[in-house]
Design goal:
It comes from Flagellimonas olearia. Belongs to the branched chain amino acid transporter family. By secondary structure, the protein is mainly alpha-helical. The two termini are 36 Å apart. Helix content is 77%, strand content 0%. It has 18 helices and no strands. It is globular.
């Protein structure tokens, strides 16, 4: 694989990850975190950069589909997990990209109904999705450079034109808050969805390439895309912190990004921001609809008809859900994320550790434990925290909505020790 292929793949990965949530969430995080912006950045990048990067590395090792991520638990569990993830992805983050595009790129300049924006938007998404073999080139060569150029300009103006007088943080637990806010980017879910898209795209372009060469390409492009995401997120959070005293504390996510753009880009802000939002959101929608269509195609013996039908369904669903406002979609997404995100993180981690430490036995027990101990966080996200609080207050990290973490780690260690004992081996052998 040459440097050109590496660059295009890395750019495509970055664009497929960087969508609506990735653009509107970090500035408000920085705005609210003030002088602790760096601590929020670490938490946010843990769940929105490190975990997704590990997901891409897992894809490089497996070079299969999302089904391979969970099949060691059981085939039935893997099918349920796959359908659930694709359903969430196509029903929430994909329509959210259209809603953000309308609120930030279209509505400020043209007083048109949101349904017109969504129809045009997903018609273009469909055109990209049906041109499956060209997605890497179209996204990597054409769209990503525009996104990065506009973001870089905003960062430079914010860095060199404004004083670093950060306000006091409004966030009680900045690190864990950053982790949970990173859930809303859907990047861990995006890793298992988008990674599969990249695998198929590489196979379409380089059918004769060896397993190891494709593994190297995916890994290197993943690291480059991860570095790009980290720099962009840190820049957006820092920029939000710089403007901590410039706006009303109750300002919405989209209004804050618009205000920052106006102060950094001047009179041309609306045009630049419209282009930035449209490109960032569009690439993510293309990745989600393509990934879902690829999966359904595989379920019907590689049927091109099934692929196109799923693409149409995904775009129609995007048009319908895209009529909701951004903040409402984010609020609706939270319970689903609190349920599926911990499982996704654990599956990613289990697929990157050495195979001798991640046998089917270990997979099953760690995933089951994660599911059980993520239920309190899920119930809390639907307003039942006061009801279940007295029964789970003893659980470590429960106050940070991360009650599943330590039990999962403990069961991972115990299940490995138990399996080694059964096999008559030393744990360190």
């Amino acid at each position: 694989m040459n440097k050109k292929s590496l660059t295009i793949t890395a750019f495509a990965l970055f664009s497929l990850f960087f969508g609506a949530g990735n653009l509107i969430l970090p500035p408000q995080l920085g705005f609210n975190s003030g002088n602790l912006w760096w601590l929020v950045t670490l938490g946010f990048c843990l769940s929105a950069v490190i975990i997704p990067l590990l997901g891409i590395l897992a894809h490089a090792r497996l070079q299969g589909t999302m089904f391979d991520f969970a099949k060691k638990v059981s085939p039935v569990f893997s099918w349920v997990y796959c359908y659930l993830v694709y359903a969430i992805a196509i029903a929430l983050p994909s329509p959210r990209t259209a809603a953000v595009t309308h609120e930030m790129a279209v509505q400020p300049m043209w007083d048109t109904p949101s349904w017109i924006t969504s129809v045009i938007y997903f018609a273009l998404v469909y055109v990209f999705v049906v041109n499956r073999s060209k997605i890497l080139d179209l996204v990597g060569k054409l769209l990503t450079p525009g996104i990065l150029a506009i973001l870089l300009f905003i960062f430079m103006v914010a860095t060199f034109s404004f004083d670093f007088n950060f306000s006091a943080s409004q966030i009680t637990h900045p690190f864990s808050h950053g982790i949970l806010e990173g859930y809303q980017t859907f990047d861990a879910i995006g890793a298992v969805v988008v990674g599969a898209v990249i695998i198929i795209s590489i196979n379409l372009k380089n059918a004769d390439a060896s397993f190891e060469s494709k593994k190297s390409l995916i890994r290197k492009s993943g690291f480059l895309a991860g570095l790009g995401l980290f720099l962009v997120y840190a820049g957006l959070i820092f920029t939000g912190a710089v403007f901590g005293d410039s706006f009303d504390p109750s300002i919405s996510r989209t209004a804050l990004l618009s205000g920052i753009s106006l102060q950094t880009l001047g009179g041309t802000a609306h045009w630049f921001l419209s282009l930035l939002v449209s490109l960032a959101c569009f690439t993510t929608a293309v990745g989600i609809v393509t990934g879902t269509s690829d999966f359904i195609k595989g379920q019907f013996n590689d049927s091109v008809l099934a692929y196109r039908i799923m693409a149409v369904i995904g775009c129609l669903l995007g048009i319908l859900m895209g009529q909701l406002n951004v903040d409402y979609i984010i609020a609706v997404a939270l319970p689903a994320l609190m349920l599926i995100y911990p499982i996704t993180i654990i599956l990613i981690l289990l697929n990157v550790v050495p195979e001798k430490l991640a046998t089917p036995w270990v997979f099953r027990w760690v995933v089951i434990t994660t599911m059980i101990f993520s239920i309190p966080d899920f119930l809390g996200s639907v307003g039942l925290s006061s009801t279940i609080g007295p029964y789970i207050e003893w659980l470590p990290l429960i106050n940070y909505q991360l009650g599943w973490v330590l039990p999962a780690i403990l069961v991972f260690v115990i299940s490995n020790l138990f399996q080694k004992k059964l096999n008559g081996q030393n744990f360190v052998s």
